[in-house]
Amino acid sequence: MRLSDFMTTMTGGVLDAVRSPVRGRRRGLIRCWWRAVGRADRAARTGPALRLSGDLGMSTAEYAIGTLAAAAFAALLYAVVTSDSVLGALTDLVERALSVNF
């Protein structure tokens, strides 16, 4: 389908369909929206802004450091949760919850 089949106008932040031949107005609006988003995304990824950004994502070293930090945090959390004071508090909480009279 051509772009002219999905012409839209922006009026006060509300998307109004000028013409929507695809199974009713709502479906046409959704397709218009996704086509516009796709065009904007492609335009944003090409051109000078992409070439000047210099950082397109995380490198392998950054993933490794992030994974190591997550593992260290998990070990710390496990140590805290399995400590005697926290384990006693959680056990007490569960016992009080189970002994509540309805």
Automatic annotation (TrEMBL):
Keyword entries, A-Z: Membrane, Transmembrane, Transmembrane helix
Pfam families the UniProt entry points to: DUF4244
InterPro entries: DUF4244
Transmembrane segments: 61-81
Entry superkingdom: Bacteria
Record protein name field: DUF4244 domain-containing protein
Organism name: Thermocrispum agreste
